[in-house]
């Protein structure tokens, strides 16, 4: 085989951007939940699941990005595969925040759409990288 | 082609993602009216959902099957009705304005057209804000909650939740604290408090007073420490005057007063004095007041009828009555009289005190009598105990005859300028000197004081607190001078702080003006007016408010402030 690097540069860039964007997404969504709870009628039994999902997504994001970085840089497919699995979970949670939140503001829709497209693109690149590493 | 398989896979993936149907555009849900769930009675029922279709909502449609004026959304209005409208009272019907995308019904009147016609448009209203509500998954977010309809199953739960006085998690305890100490029972020594009716052995001490009309009602109890004076009319008949209880002295003194409420300690009412009033109004004091005089019929008159009672109750400072005395005015009722006026008074005095009412503390209060007195050699000031007869001026009477007006005096009240007078009829037979002396008595009264208290609360011992009355005589040089006017000028000043100035009398001047009495030819009469007046003059110096000094700024820099350079 050629001595090219198999690590995918677009994936690396995307993972890096995803990390920064996710911090912004997390803070913005949290701020908007606080805003919604003050302005609208937001009972506690509906507020709890929304906040839980957000924090769960945050907790999931850290190992997902770490495994993605590690897998891409060490050209190992196992961490990358694990990261792909965690991405599926993140996508589900993000879809919840997009569709099934108590109040979905237009800003929520924009942020979640961008995040989902980032996840989609990332998954595609990861699959390609796994294919490259395996072969 | 180094990575065609990877690139191809990438493109396939992108294609798949693009072809995925986009999430359907979410609109805020417009819930259709839910039919009341009648199938299963066990399920919780709620009232039908509210109408939310903006095209059918019309808040100004109040009259059923009739057209409401200026209500453009009223379905009962026809085109002819619309042509008579001037404006639309409800121009826009819309849902919550925070939704991103919603329908709005817009009603307007086209006044240009002839006849005016109504324009109805259903438009999509867009909220441009980035924080507009795109969707909600919570139905009650934008609508009021429909209340639950009670059924047999949920009744108990609803009652527990909403049946209390307020909707709370823990119900309020509405019972009063049963451990609260009960008010002290009567076996403790109680005492009279202000306003409490004075109790006698059978009921209350009665002070007859007019109730609604002027007729006497015997059911008015006297309140402790409540000084009262009442006058009322009682119907009498001379034949039965010895059987009318209210005319007899016994009625007012036979029941003893309880010293403290609900006790057995009694205080007898003693007769302090008896004044007998004759038919023409002359009163004379009886020397012996221990003989009980009961009404009896004598020569078509009823004598010894009670015309007035004056109670004097002495009490201790702990609210216990120790003495009670009554002063009576007895009179005679003639045969023609069908009613008489009785007057009653009650006053309370604390034991061992001589209540001397003050006219201010310390400055004089407008409307209270000016305090005045005499100073015999070497002692303090002596005042009359009647506060209304210390400094007086002549009181005008209805007859306006000076010589018949003797005795009626009006007290000088602080701050009230008064003028009064009478007319003197001079005949040729009157002699100068006795007339002058009589007029002086009429003007000045029986005991014209020498000193006036400068403060309302000046004590009799502090002689320096009293201002002497300066007497001036203005007279012409002629043999026969009669006084014709007395003018008392009281100069007072504001004393003390700017915020709460007190009135203080500084100077009192009594000026007697005399005029010559011309000898009249016999048979002729003259009427001359005699006046007396009181004037209060404020001679306060303008106030000098004192201000605090401007604050000075003392800045001193430390000696090493400019350290490296100094």
From TrEMBL, chain A:
One of its GO terms (cellular component) is ciliary transition zone. Keywords: Cell projection, Membrane, Transmembrane, Transmembrane helix. Its main location: other. It is a multi-pass membrane protein. It comes from the Eukaryota. The chain crosses the membrane at residues 12-35, 47-67, 79-97. It holds the Pfam family Transmemb_17. It is found in: Cell projection, Cilium; Membrane. GO terms for biological process: non-motile cilium assembly. This is TMM80 protein. It comes from Erithacus rubecula. The gene is Tmem80.
């Amino acid at each position: 085989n050629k001595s090219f690097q198999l690590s995918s540069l677009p994936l690396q860039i995307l993972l890096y951007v995803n990390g920064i964007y996710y911090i912004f997404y997390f803070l913005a969504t949290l701020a908007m939940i606080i805003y919604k709870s003050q302005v609208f009628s937001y009972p506690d039994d509906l507020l709890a699941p929304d906040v839980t999902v957000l924090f769960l997504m945050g907790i999931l994001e850290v190992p997902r990005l770490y495994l993605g970085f590690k897998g891409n840089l060490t050209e190992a497919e196992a961490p990358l595969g694990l990261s792909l699995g965690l991405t599926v979970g993140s996508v589900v949670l993000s879809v919840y925040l997009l569709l099934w939140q108590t109040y979905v503001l237009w800003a929520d829709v924009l942020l979640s759409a961008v995040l989902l497209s980032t996840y989609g693109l990332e998954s595609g690149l990861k699959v390609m990288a796994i294919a490259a590493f395996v072969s | 082609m180094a990575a065609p398989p990877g690139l191809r896979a990438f493109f396939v993936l992108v294609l798949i993602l693009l072809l995925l149907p986009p999430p359907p555009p979410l609109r805020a849900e417009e819930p259709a009216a839910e039919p009341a769930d009648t199938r299963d009675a066990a399920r919780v029922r709620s009232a039908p959902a509210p109408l939310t279709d903006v095209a059918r909502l019309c808040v100004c449609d109040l009259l059923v099957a009739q057209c409401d004026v200026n209500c453009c959304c009223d379905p009962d209005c026809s085109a002819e009705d619309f042509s008579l409208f001037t404006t639309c009272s409800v121009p826009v019907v819309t849902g919550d304005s925070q939704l991103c995308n919603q329908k709005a019904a817009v009603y307007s009147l086209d006044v240009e057209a002839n006849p005016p016609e109504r324009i109805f448009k259903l438009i999509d209203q867009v909220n441009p804000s980035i924080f507009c509500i795109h969707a909600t998954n919570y139905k009650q977010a934008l609508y009021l909650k429909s209340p639950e309809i009670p059924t047999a199953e949920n009744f108990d739960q609803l009652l527990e939740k909403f049946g209390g006085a307020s909707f709370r998690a823990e119900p309020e305890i509405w019972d009063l604290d049963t451990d609260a100490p009960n008010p002290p029972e009567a076996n403790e020594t109680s005492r009279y408090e202000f306003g409490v009716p004075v109790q006698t052995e059978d009921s209350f001490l009665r002070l007859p007073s007019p109730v609604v009309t002027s007729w006497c009602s015997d059911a008015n109890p006297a309140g402790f420490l409540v000084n009262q004076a009442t006058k009322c009319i009682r119907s009498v008949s001379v034949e039965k005057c010895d059987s009318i209880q209210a005319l007899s002295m016994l009625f007012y003194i036979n029941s003893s007063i309880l010293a403290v409420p609900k006790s057995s300690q009694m205080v007898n009412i003693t007769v302090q004095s008896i004044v007998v009033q004759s038919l023409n109004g002359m009163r004379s004091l009886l020397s012996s007041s221990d003989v009980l005089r009961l009404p009896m019929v004598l020569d078509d008159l009823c004598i010894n009828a009670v015309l007035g009672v004056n109670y004097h109750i002495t009490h201790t400072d702990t609210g216990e009555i120790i003495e009670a005395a009554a002063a009576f005015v007895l009179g005679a009722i003639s045969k023609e009289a069908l009613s008489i006026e009785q007057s009653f008074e009650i006053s309370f005095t604390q034991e061992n005190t001589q209540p001397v009412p003050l006219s201010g503390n310390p400055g004089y209060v407008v409307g209270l009598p000016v305090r005045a007195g005499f100073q015999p050699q070497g002692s303090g000031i002596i005042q009359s105990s009647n506060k209304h007869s210390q400094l007086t001026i002549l009181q005008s009477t209805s007859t306006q005859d000076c010589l018949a007006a003797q005795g009626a005096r009006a007290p000088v009240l602080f701050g009230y300028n008064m003028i009064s007078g009478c007319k003197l009829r001079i005949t040729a037979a009157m002699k100068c000197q006795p007339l002058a002396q009589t007029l002086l008595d009429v003007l000045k009264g029986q005991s014209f004081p020498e000193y006036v208290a400068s403060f309302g609360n000046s004590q009799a011992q502090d002689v320096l607190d009293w201002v002497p009355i300066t007497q001036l005589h203005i007279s012409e040089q002629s043999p026969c001078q009669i006084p014709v006017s007395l003018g008392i000028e009281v100069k007072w000043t504001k004393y003390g702080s700017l915020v709460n100035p007190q009135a203080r009398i500084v100077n009192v001047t009594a000026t007697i003006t005399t005029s010559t009495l011309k000898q009249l030819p016999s048979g002729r009469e003259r009427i001359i007016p005699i006046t007396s007046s009181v004037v209060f003059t404020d001679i306060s110096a303008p106030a000098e408010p004192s201000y605090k000094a401007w604050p000075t700024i003392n800045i001193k820099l430390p000696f090493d402030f400019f350290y490296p350079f100094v």
